[in-house]
Specification:
2 copies of one chain form a homodimer.
Chain A (H helix, E strand, L loop, with lengths): L1 H7 L8 H11 L3 E2 L9 E2 L1 H20 L3 E2 L5 E3 H20 L20 E6 L2 E9 L4 H11 L8 E10 L14 E11 L2 H22 L3 E5 L11 E8 L4 E12 L1 H6 L2 E3 L5 E3 L1 E8 L1 H10 L16 E5 L8 H14 L4 E3 L6 H10 L4 E5 L1 H6 L1 E6 L4 E5 L3 H27 E3 L12 E5 L4 H11 L2 E6 L7 E2 L6 E2 L2 E7 L1
Parallel strand pairs in A: 3-7, 11-25, 15-16, 15-17, 20-21
Antiparallel strand pairs in A: 1-2, 4-6, 5-6, 7-8, 8-14, 9-10, 9-22, 10-11, 11-14, 12-13, 17-18, 18-19, 21-25, 22-25, 23-24
Chain lengths: ~500, ~500
């Protein structure tokens, strides 16, 4: 009977990840995919609340690190994009030819985002004089304004961010949160006096990434992407990849160090202490709703979602049991809920007239980290019965419910972080030589220090993609897997989403 | 010297409102209008923070009243708009002909938003098969999904809301917050079992409006708009107009009762308790960034903005004075700031190396409600010196700074609410007869119960527009100003923004 009730919800087993993922995001009511535009889902209340909890963590980190929140227009005039395109094609050519960008003439080559954007060329019944496009990201918009805001070194560092909707005209298959056409997007943009200051910003970004990934219990690999996979406008790109359950990696965030390249294209200068005009050095840090996709994918199981407490839309669900048998049950539940809400927990009382099993499955599917049951005997004993979504049940005292719940949620978080670490250990295998068999569902660690041609060999032989240099190199000398030369460069290869 | 420092900021006197308003929103750094698209300003950190504080009040009210937050795609396919247009033109005709909408054939007439929207007809290098447009508001998008979410009476009431960017292709002159092309927009959409339930929702909306307007200290007139000024898709429209300093009214919010008209067009039905299929009855409630425009316009003065404490980005600015003369000053300021932050106040310490006058003007322009100065003698006396932006200064004890600041901010709020009431009293004059002279900067209260033709007479004679029926009719019989017949209908006429 219980199995029947569960089966009715229609969740495929998680081992069939490609069927499980799209099913669970709808069954748990995170999104509705029936909106009549492909790749643009409707955020339902439960999913949107989860995303807003993730945003709240981001806001907190941004405030802690003195970033200021702005909000730029969605629309960008076409002529600004052309400035970006010129820069990007210049940098791309310089990189390909291995020369300094300043040696090259600026070409009117088409590049950048032009082929991936939605265009607004008409308004009402008019054709617009200057076509505009929906932002895919906001470099162009922001760097048009930065010169107006930055005059002297006292205006630096300028640290801004926004959380907005952005758009990419995706032609690949779409997937909720992971590959969508309207993206809930976070972007931080900073300007600094020099390269060193900008580099310190990247370090701070990685510290923020660390905090966020810990809060969400996500297993990540942080890599400096190889040159051919660097954002064309960047000096270098650091990417944060989550290891999904099937061993494929999902890039959820990235930081770019721009050096003074954009500043030169957009004329972002400042007067230094001696009164000389200098170009700013810039960085960006981006994340998206993919964070939620990673949380869903990483923590869910055959029974539904599991939310880490910091981002759970509902952290605790309270269920009165057999309340018709004792008048003390409902008041005890209400008192506990009040105390928990007062202490800042996100709490739901489920007093629907349904069989308990039905209710369990609902909250199990939705991934509520902690369920508290209160029946007549519990009240007599002064307890609530706590059941963690990650497993384990025990009574906790009602008269100190706040501390009890705090501890239970900590246990859930600890368990999720531990699972995440085990997943990393299970997933990452050392690749010793090119003859070694490549197993499905794994990521390989390699010593690699070869040329682009060597990289191509490595990728072709293994069928995997190079993520780039791990932040931690090997502690001692290794042999490059392709060239055999001595190196400490530690890289990962994986199937990427 | 002081006057020189102030004059340099270039704020025109508030009596010249049309010059003061656009100047102050930029000088106080709420927005930057230099973004290269007309009517699309960049929100700077200070302005965005103020808007987010207003949004926080809205979220709180929505949570209190059991609304759930959703987020719908920005883009809407053209064919859905056509459904809306058909409905709207049908209702318009029915209203014009004074018949029930069900008696009319649905015409393929063009109406609604079609002429006011931004079109997306191209993506990348492709022309799209189905053109899409940027939402001007989300009825069409939402009511396409509601039928999928509502099955039976237990799913009702469905109460949703979202805070998103919306777009109108404005052809009139733009003005920050008041008339813009990208709008920061709040919209609540609800579905109910019947007209009564929907009407009770409108009552709840007006209660929410009351709380919000009190928090912002805004003087408002709430009116049921006359038929010709009702949103074409609505059964009736209730509008909330702020009385701006120059006596013109600015509509900042509105509620629509839709009856079952949209439900019939979009097939939004439910099964009632007897298993019969019924149409839902619906309401919407909308507000926009105009709220911030109203706050700026209503409370500011010749010296800058004045923020009501509930939405002030910075509620208290702390200024150490002559800190070089005593080592006790900085620690005292830091301790006070910590205590205030702990208590949830938004606090800024201004320790810039500038002359005090310079600092005062900065925070005066930005409208921070409370300034606290702490100098060596203040520390000795155990006080901070409190100066309210609305006038008045006094010492408050440092060892109970939280209560002191709480009281000071209450005084500011009380003062703003009082000014607002006085403004209403000063502004609204009774219009006794059509011969009475119409004075600039005033709103007139009239007894009016005439036909559309009589309304035209009233509007033409006075040069003012009819806002509609006030929520409170006259307590006793009056003579209609045009027809002379007996009525209790109390209406207002004004110049509208």
């Amino acid at each position: 009977m219980a199995e029947h009730g569960k089966a009715k919800r229609g969740i495929p087993p998680k081992s069939d990840f490609n069927a499980w993922y799209p099913a669970i995001v709808e069954i748990a009511e995170l999104v509705d995919k029936r909106y009549p535009i492909k790749g643009m889902d409707v955020w339902r209340p439960y999913g949107w609340k989860a995303m807003r909890c993730i945003d709240a963590l981001t806001h907190r980190e941004m405030e802690r690190t003195d970033h200021e929140e702005v909000c730029f227009p969605l629309l960008i005039p076409e002529d600004l994009l052309e400035k970006e395109n010129r820069l990007v094609s210049l940098l791309k050519r310089a990189r390909e030819e291995g020369v300094d960008p300043s040696e090259l003439r600026v070409e009117e080559e088409e590049a950048g985002f032009k082929k991936e954007v939605y265009w607004v060329k008409h308004a009402g019944e008019n054709e617009l004089d200057v076509p505009m496009f929906l932002r895919p990201t906001s470099e162009t918009a922001m760097y048009t304004m930065f010169p107006l805001w930055i005059r002297s070194h006292v205006d630096l560092p300028l640290k801004t961010y926004q959380i907005v909707n952005t758009f990419r005209y995706e032609t690949k298959q779409t997937r909720s949160f992971i590959r969508v056409r309207e993206i809930h997007f976070f972007e931080a943009h900073t300007a600094h006096v020099d390269e060193d200051c900008a580099s310190r910003q990247i370090e701070q970004d990685l510290e923020i990434v660390g905090h966020l990934m810990d809060s969400m219990g996500l297993p990540v690999i942080i890599s400096k992407r190889p040159v051919w996979d660097t954002f064309p406008g960047a000096w270098y790109t650091i990417a944060i990849d989550v290891i999904m359950p099937n061993g494929r990696t999902l890039q959820v965030a990235s930081c770019h160090h721009y050096k003074d390249q954009w500043a030169k294209a957009f004329d972002i200068t400042y007067q230094d202490e001696s009164g000389n005009t200098q170009y700013c050095h810039q960085t960006t840090y981006g994340m998206s709703e993919r964070l939620l996709g990673a949380v869903v994918g990483m923590h869910g199981d055959d029974n539904g979602l599991i939310f880490p407490p910091p981002i759970a839309p509902i952290q605790v669900v309270l269920m009165p049991v057999a309340a018709h048998k004792s008048d003390a049950v409902i008041p005890a539940v209400d008192a506990a809920a009040s105390a928990l809400r007062e202490a800042g927990f996100r709490v739901k009382i489920d007093s629907r007239d349904l069989r308990p099993g039905q209710k369990y499955w609902d909250w199990e599917i939705k991934g509520v980290p902690l369920r508290l049951e209160v029946g007549p005997r519990d009240v007599e004993n002064g307890n609530a019965f706590a059941a963690r979504r990650t497993g384990g049940k025990e009574p906790i005292p009602l008269d100190n419910i706040v501390e009890g719940v705090h501890n239970q949620l900590e246990m859930v978080q600890t368990e999720l972080n531990q699972r995440s670490r085990i997943h990393v250990d299970d997933c990452i295998i050392r690749l010793e030589n090119l003859e070694q068999e490549i197993l499905d569902g794994h990521i390989y660690e390699v010593a690699f220090d070869g040329s682009d041609a060597d990289a191509e060999t490595l990728e072709k032989t293994t069928g995997l993609a190079i993520l780039g240099d791990a932040m931690e190199p090997f502690p001692d000398d290794q042999q490059c897997i392709v060239t055999g030369k001595t190196t400490r460069r530690r890289q990962h290869i994986a199937r990427m989403y």
